[in-house]
Amino acid sequence: MRVHFIVNTFRPVAIDAAKETVSWLRAEGVEALVEPEAAELSGLPALDPTRIGDCDLVVCLGGDGTLIRAAHLVSRQGTPLLGVNFGRFGFVCACPPDARHNVIRRVLDGAAVLDERAMVQTDLERDGHHVASLHSLNEAAVTRAATTRLLTFEVAVNGIPLARYPADGVMIATPTGSTAYNLSAGGPIVHPSVPCLVMSPIMPHALGARSIVLGADAVAEIRVETRGDAVLSCDGHSRLTLLSGDLVKVVLSPRVTRLVRVTEDDFLHKVSERFVWGRIYPDEPEESC
């Protein structure tokens, strides 16, 4: 068995956890390697950065951003990911730090359950030629550049013109991404088991502009109508500058992110806890009647 580690090196507690967990795994006879930057800081054995997904499990020690970065790196292989939460929110990093050894043990024993999370595939076409394909766990967003004024975006779905509005941008999110950038833009929360896409305008200058949930077979096409600098961003990692006339096409990806399940329907627990839906007054204990 081989386990690889991706660590948020800005969190010393995550580096300490990597040292402890790698030591434990090696004592169990499991090969354990960490990505080069974390290896340099921790003194642990480093893995080949071009082969991060060539293992039985990737453990992410950090926050949701750390796991999303890992999803990009291993999506081609479909390697299982375990997110151990050393961050602030921890929506996809479902494992508490003190439970990590028990959950890893379940994976090593073949007893773990994997949840497959949908990803989106984004294709950029320019002058009729394919330029790039990107795969993302949360969302693909077409936005104006920081120094550009408001742009007008045209959106078609399955070849049918759907929307045209001036805005800061348009995003297409997965159900997993519905609690991320999409939620900040006023989009709906969608359970990760629902096969769909969520299209949301970003700061639209139009009262009628609203989010829409699209079917799993939807093909969304986005064009920037007005002149100005626009950017295609996928999960905030991959960023491509768009030219006038470029076409961005977004569909559900054939790839999936495979997450190790920590508790049954962890998503509902997270929604209740993180959004404080379980209390009337978040800062006060509930009184018994």
CATH superfamily of the largest domain: Probable inorganic polyphosphate/atp-NAD kinase, domain 2
What's the main sheet like? 6 strands, antiparallel
Number of helices: 6
CATH topology of the largest domain: Tumour Suppressor Smad4
Q: How much β-strand is present in the residues?
A: 35-45%
Mean pLDDT reading: 92
Helix content estimate: 10-25%
CATH architecture of the largest domain: Sandwich
Structural class: alpha+beta
Taking all Cα atoms into account, the compactness measure Rg is 21 Å
Number of domain modules:
2
Brief overview:
The protein is α+β, with helices and mostly antiparallel strands and 289 residues long. Helix content is 19%, strand content 37%. The protein is globular, with a radius of gyration of 21 Å.
Describe the structure.
The protein has 2 domains: 2-113 and 261-274, Probable inorganic polyphosphate/atp-NAD kinase, domain 1 (Rossmann fold), CATH 3.40.50.10330; 119-254, Probable inorganic polyphosphate/atp-NAD kinase, domain 2 (Tumour Suppressor Smad4, Sandwich), CATH 2.60.200.30. The chain is 19% helix and 37% strand. It contains 6 helices and 16 strands. The protein has helices at residues 12-27, 36-42, 64-74, 100-108, 181-184, 266-274; strands at residues 2-7, 31-34, 57-62, 81-85, 114-126, 129-136, 139-144, 151-157, 160-167, 169-173, 196-202, 212-215, 220-224, 230-234, 238-242, 247-260. A 6-stranded antiparallel beta sheet has the order 6-5-16-13-8-9, with helices on one face. A 6-stranded antiparallel beta sheet has the order 12-11-10-7-14-15, with no helix packed on it. Strands 2-1-3-4 form a 4-stranded parallel beta sheet, with helices on both faces. A hairpin with a 3-residue loop joins strand 14 (230-234) and strand 15 (238-242). The termini are far apart. The model has no long low-confidence stretch (mean pLDDT 92).
